[in-house]
Amino acid sequence: SAVACVVVGAANEKLREVHQVGTLPLLGAEVLQVHAPPFVTKESASSETHGHAPAFSRVQRRRSFIKKKKERAGIANGETAKGSDGGGGTTTEDISVPKDLDLIALPQLCFPGGLQIASEQREDSYHYLVFTDVFGNRTHAVVVQYYRPIQSSRLYTAYGICVISKYPYYNALRDCLSCLLTQLKPSWMGDFEERVKEFSAKLALVPIPPPGQLHVVFNLRPLQIGLPSREDKDRPAIDLDLHLPFLCFRPRQLLQIITSLLIEQRVVLLSCDWARLTLLAESLMLFIHPLVWQHPFVPILSRQMLDFLMAPTAYLMGCHLHHYEEVAAETDDLILVNIDDGTVSSSWSDGIDLPDVPLAAAECFIKRVEGLQVHYDLEVCHLGDSTEVNARRAQRKQWQSKLNTHIQNITLELIVNIFREVHDHLNYEHRVFNSEEFLRSREPADQPFYKKVLDTHIFHSFLRDRLTRKMDAFTRMELSTRTEAYRLRSMTESPRRPTMQELARKYTSPESRLSKRLGASLPNLGESGGSLSPQRPVRFFKLPEFPPPLAYHYVQNYYQEMITLLGKAISGAASGDSSLLARYHYLRGFVNTVAGKRLDALEDFQNLYKTDTDIFPGELVNALVDSLQEGEQALADRRPEIKHLISRVKRDHERERARHVDEGVKRFQLPKKHMQLEDFVRHVQESGIVKDQGTIHRLFEALTVGQQKQVDPEIFRVFYTFWKETEAEAQEVALPASALEHLEANECVFKLSSSVKTSHGVGKIAMTQRRLFLLTEGRPGYMEVTKFRDIEEVKISSAPFLLLRIPSLKIKTTLRKETFEVNLKSEVDLWHLMVKEMWAGRKMADDHKDPQYMQQALTNALLMDAVVGCLQSQKAIFAATKLAHFDRMKLEVPLMVPKSTSETLKHKINPSLGLTSPQAVDVLLYTPGKLSGTLSGDGNPKLWCALSDGKVVVFDAASWSMQQNQVQVGTSRVNCMLGVDRQQVWIGSQDSVIYIISTRSMSCNKQLTDHRSEVTGLINEHPKVAYSCSAEGAVIVWDVSTLQVRKQFRVSCDRLQSVQLCNGTLWCCKYTYKHKNRVLKITSGCTILLCREQLWTACIDVGELCVWHLREPTKPFQRIQLPDCAGVTCLIKVKNQIWVGGRGWSSGKSRGKIYVVDAQRHTVEKELVAHTDCVQALCSAEDRYVLSGAAREDGKIAIWKVE
């Protein structure tokens, strides 16, 4: 680890003056020594061997470290600053001082209260520093001030030793300094510099552990010191006590401080103890994770730096408590946080004017904090005291680590509860956040908070991560704590309105409303922690004893010893514990890099693909590849796996650079110019009204009826405003209790007429997604008019009234003899269109068992309403007819669903929900559930659906709700999927990689990269072995637990399409364009299936199946003609049936068809039609159901009952 060490104190001449004066002044501190890597180099080693230099040279060459400092008298023991080799060499600027480290300000920060001469020995005192460079990268430091006697006097002077690291290892570095002091105190001043240099060189040998469960431990007598690893790539290591803020502040004060950071105020921490300032500031940074503070962060300001507080930007700074009055008086708009008193105040008034954290989130946080056990003494009062100091420290660390995890869960849950619903208002395609819409949907009391937060830099970068679908701790917790109701709601794409359940809640007291919302956020968070990654047992890697750290050969031997130890750890680790193996490989790769063994390092990093790609250090490996020398490059070219790694790293690096170019976030804005179709589509999608392109094209037609094909921005504004006002009115609908009783919990009122006369009295007609009902006036009551599925006829007629004829709507239903009539006056045409569209949508949804038709019909009806509302002209109703999509379909082609299809079809789902257009379903896989399923439904069976470009959508197969919007596996088409040992799903891609998804974490963190062309088939016979094949003919046999290659061979062919196992024999389906030897003559696009002693084959362009005897594979003994079939794409065996998917004709139109064939009698039993495009994928769910997926025009999944 790159560690630098700086010694700060008073110059010798100043100390002599003090001795003569005899008073105890404050002195100016100066930098006395700087020790920074590299401490040893190969060049220094060669000169050592010639001169036989000892391992520790007592006379190290000194360097000057601050430009413009003249040669001056040596400090520690009177040496001169010239080269100590007697050659009087000129001083050179020290190239090894860490970049961006400001040595000018360092003395002030090491002694922020000034350097005080003392008349007696004082206790050692520690504090902590953070430096931030211009790019926002932080460097961390621990400083110890300790006193030594001034020569030949009774006075004592302080020295500050400052250890600086890129990593925030505050506790570990403090303990290292404690060990150094035990050596320094008894030593004489002449050894001082040498000891500090050796100490720095030792720390520079310590490797930083990779993210995950492996910690690094080393001995620095008398203590054993541990470096904890980071939880994951996106978090810093946590090596401080996170409960300190809870000891200083009550939960409500902590919420005020967190609020002031989230709304980017100027925050000043104050304390009499310098150490508290940094530890609290760093804890606060961790509490708001994954939001990242973007402003000046200076936890300690020395006396001379107080003018920093005049900065005009937001900041978080800290200073000594005795400056409180001065700071409060001089500067306005400050939030003053007094750590010692536990108070939060403002510099401009007695009170504090901060918006409150959203109520539900705040209550939940306070409840959690009350349950925290933050007193170690209570934890250990039943235990005896250990006599061994390291055992005592380990016990305390274990307690602290557990508490830190618990606290992180509580603060992460707070952030999740505050920002949970942001993603409902994101448009991923155009990278837009609809902030107005988000604000409007907040509780009125919470709006002041959100108004301020939405305008901050910190929130903007949080949005950027959400729009790139970053799978971080926030996303994991947000997904795992979603309620089932929320999951089901996200399965519908209909415009949002409050459901009956929400309306019922609205009429109850705010307290019960809060507890309902709290209830939604409180589950799933036990000690193990919501969904920070599940707590794995921590392992420790103990480093060998340090060598003499300033001799090159000793250091190289030390690296070799570490590499050997890691090799032993790798061979000793359980083959199934890939996570631990990944950490060992990472560490060994890192040590190999430092030791100059670049190819060995690359091999270690290559192993991360099989064990855990999440910790793959892309930048380090890229730099390693760039530093390969010619000889190494030639050797790398001879090793295919390293050659493959190098080309892959280069490709990924280029892609990453291209990706960063366009990662802005836009706020939704109304258009200012006329829009052609393409612009109109984009604006409607950004507005969040509707995403589906087909629907938007029809809306464009409606808004441009009888005119030039472009939409006026003013028309768009009126349309958008009307839509939003209708949405807002729905929030205010007041329904009598009788209505709430009759309607289902998830029903919403979408349209309410004005007060009208009906055949059942005066009232308002209301429309939900299921029915029409009348809200009677006078005595408020409910009367059902009809459910949409019960309608027989809808028509407009005119009723005579005095001398006028008033148009009325007549609705005839199957459940009532008399017709329901309502005098809708001017609204009649619109209601007529809307009711007919809803009726047609309901009928199609019922016929096709596809609830999405109903959702679409509802969207169409509401768009008609908005079109009529914004056009306000003669042509408005004609324009609205352009949106009557299902009503028109009903008239054009009465879509009769064949009886056999209707009886066998159970349900349909849409995996492209939330995308702008349907995607082809390329592959389907069903994985059975575990009986010991957890409460969150993790144990339920799942349906995995591969869409285009490496998107995999996962459904809970118990409720058919979407479990996860998408897991991304590369960016190429998925060719095959396989469930392996109930814990993994293997996915073969066109980019030649097999991606492995853990069914528990639902993340893809392993890859098998041994294939050299697209992976075309995956299969396994028993849990321990899997087979894969790729297009160029390679077949690989895998050990499932270790992911090592057991065996591989090649099949000579033009393309290897798939592999299948039958009775211990592996069958390969290949294309060969020339047939000289005896090869099954199969044309391109072939599918094979092995069933008992038979082989079934089919082709993409022929409507027949061929059945062969396995013993006699020269020609088929049976051909089965499939009626009205144009070609077959997939075959599966279910019980004693063969299900065949392909394309054919039905009612004269091309359709996706499924044929069910009896496997013994070889007859077609059923012909099923449920898709408007070719059936591309079939899979069986435990032989009870069959699932079929269709090509792009249709893009749906159908679920069929198996007889």
UniProtKB/TrEMBL annotation:
Region named Disordered: 69-92, 490-513
Subcellular location: Cytoplasm
Entries under PROSITE patterns matching the protein: DENN (PS50211)
Coiled coil, from the record: none
Pfam families: dDENN, DENN, TPR_DENND3, uDENN
Classification via InterPro entries: cDENN_dom, dDENN_dom, DENN_C, DENN_Domain_GEFs, TPR_DENND3, Tripartite_DENN, uDENN_dom, WD40/YVTN_repeat-like_dom_sf
This protein's GO CC annotations: cytoplasmic vesicle
Organism domain of life: Eukaryota
Gene3D superfamilies xrefs: 3.30.450.200, 3.40.50.11500, YVTN repeat-like/Quinoprotein amine dehydrogenase
UDENN domain location: 64-473
Keyword terms, alphabetized: Cytoplasm, Guanine-nucleotide releasing factor, Phosphoprotein, Repeat, WD repeat
GO molecular function (one): guanyl-nucleotide exchange factor activity
Any one Gene Ontology BP term: regulation of Rab protein signal transduction
Assembly: Forms oligomers. Interacts with 6 of the 7 known isoforms of 14-3-3 proteins.
UniProt-recorded name of the protein: DENN domain-containing protein 3
Organism field: Oncorhynchus kisutch
